[in-house]
Write a structure and sequence with these properties.
- This protein is mainly alpha-helical.
- The chain contains 9 helices and 5 strands.
- It has helices at residues 3-24, 32-50, 69-79, 88-91, 120-133, 138-144, 148-153, 166-173, 177-189, and strands spanning 30-31, 59-60, 67-68, 94-98, 105-109.
- The strands form 2 sheets. Strands 1-5-4 form a 3-stranded antiparallel sheet.
- Strand 4 (94-98) and strand 5 (105-109) form a beta hairpin.
- Helix 2 (32-50) packs across helix 8.
- The two termini are 25 Å apart.
- The relative contact order is 0.18.
- The model is unreliable at 1-7 (pLDDT under 50).
């Protein structure tokens, strides 16, 4: 196995751990919108505080706000709407259900996260974001995440998802100039942009 594949696998296992950790914070299930917005806020906060992303997942614009692409595809696979077999093992760790009106998708964890994949900073940020925003409705979280990064990349006329560059998320997080330069250098060294 080459280094690229090992790194990609490591990144996917970290995404799985973050996803399961966040899901396990809810008593039952959580809807996609709320989950995706909490993960976006956690990503933004981790960048602001520590200068590195919480997860190596691209966030895309949707009308309801940002959504992490890999996690969204994992949820779609669990729902039977995605055929990317590389997501199958992670998708088996969650359950997706749809309310009768077919408009709201809910997800819940079927297992616990691998805590060895989560750092103290990861846990602190996820816990803080959950505590601060878990009582918010999905629509309120959508409004909160319609920040400068989302507005810069969302095109109301096209209504088509577009990748939010991580540098736009960094700017929306309001980091200092020095931290922004550090983050940009770090992202370039790690092949992210």
């Amino acid at each position: 196995m080459n280094t690229c594949n090992m790194r990609a696998e490591k990144d996917i296992l970290k995404i799985k751990a973050v996803l399961l950790y966040m899901l396990n914070k809810f008593d039952e299930k959580v809807d996609f919108i709320k989950l995706f917005k909490l993960l976006y806020l956690a990503q933004k906060e981790h960048l602001r505080l520590y200068g590195i992303p919480l997860i190596k997942d691209d966030f895309y614009t949707f009308k309801a706000g940002p959504a992490p692409s890999i996690i969204y595809n994992i949820c779609k696979f669990a729902k039977g709407e995605c055929s990317d077999k590389s997501l199958e093992l992670i998708a088996k760790t969650i359950q997706v259900t749809t309310e009768k009106d077919k408009k709201v998708n809910f997800v819940k964890a079927l297992e616990n996260p691998d805590m060895n994949r989560l750092s103290k900073s990861n846990l602190r940020v996820i816990d803080d974001i959950y505590d601060k925003y878990q009582a918010c409705s999905s629509s309120k979280l959508s409004n909160i995440t319609h920040d400068a990064a989302w507005r810069k990349n969302w095109n109301e006329d096209e209504k088509k998802p577009k990748k939010i560059p991580i540098n736009d998320i960094v700017l929306a997080a309001g980091v200092s100039d020095g931290m922004r330069k550090y983050i940009q250098e770090s992202l370039l060294m790690n092949g992210m942009s």
